[in-house]
Amino acid sequence: MFKASLDNLAKYLPFVLVGFVLLIFITIGVTIENGSIFVALLPALPICIISIGAYYYSPLYYEVEMDSIAIVRKAGKFFIARKDIKGMSAISEAELGRAWRMMGNGGVFGYTGYYSSSNIGKMRWFVSQRKNYVLITMNNDSKFLLSPDDVAGFLAATQS
């Protein structure tokens, strides 16, 4: 089991979002008199849903199993078949290059979803911190990015 600790942005951004939702509630509660409270609070609903989804799909830790690498999340495990892995290596932030989100979560309880990098191209992230990157390249040229706390130990476990 290889832990996936959250960086400061991933730890504190959810609190900022909760504060924003509370601010909406307070502002609307003060300004609304005879209108529908449901319609007034509708803007806060997507923020709550997205935050809950990000919480359940954020990586908690990684397991190196005999036939797969498992990304363990509250919503269940995601498996990467070891027989389909072409290569695996630790990469730095400079090697990653500028990355942007195509569809995913950019800091609420981690960084998950589909991203594109200027140096590597399209990939799927299961990242909890913006360091300790491990890039997994598959035989079909798809890529996954993980961020175990112990990169050297993780890579050593996958080689055995």
Task: Please explain how this structure is put together.
By secondary structure, this protein is α+β, with helices and mostly antiparallel strands. The chain has a single domain (1-160), classed as PH-domain like. It is 35% helix and 37% strand. It is built from five helices and ten strands; from the N terminus they run βαααββββαβββββα. The chain has helices at residues 8-31, 37-41, 44-57, 93-96, 151-159; strands at residues 2-3, 59-64, 68-73, 76-81, 85-91, 99-106, 111-117, 121-127, 133-138, 143-146. A six-stranded mixed β-sheet has the order 5-9-10-8-7-6. A four-stranded antiparallel β-sheet has the order 1-2-3-4. Strand 6 (99-106) and strand 7 form a beta hairpin. Helix 1 packs antiparallel against helix 3. The radius of gyration is 19 Å and the shape is elongated. The mean pLDDT is 90.
Write the layout of secondary structure elements.
Blueprint (H helix, E strand, L loop, with lengths): L1 E2 L4 H24 L5 H5 L2 H14 L1 E6 L3 E6 L2 E6 L3 E7 L1 H4 L2 E8 L4 E7 L3 E7 L5 E6 L4 E4 L4 H9 L1
Parallel strand pairs: 8-10
Antiparallel strand pairs: 1-2, 2-3, 3-4, 5-9, 6-7, 7-8, 9-10
Helix pairs in contact: 1-3
At the first level of CATH, the class is: Mainly Beta
Main sheet: which strands, in order across?
5-9-10-8-7-6
Task: Give the CA-CA distance, first to last residue.
Answer: 15 Å
Name given to the CATH architecture: Roll
CATH fold description: PH-domain like
Find the CATH superfamily. Answer: Pleckstrin-homology domain (PH domain)/Phosphotyrosine-binding domain (PTB)
Give the oligomeric state of the chains in this entry, treating copies of one chain as homo and distinct chains as hetero.
Answer: single chain
* Overall pLDDT metric: 90
Poorly predicted regions are: none
Please count the beta strands (DSSP E, at least 2 residues each): 10
Order of helices and strands: EHHHEEEEHEEEEEH
- What is the number of domains? 1
What is the makeup of the main sheet? 6 strands, mixed
Instruction: Name the shape in a single word.
Output: elongated
Radius of gyration: 19 Å
The helix tally amounts to 5
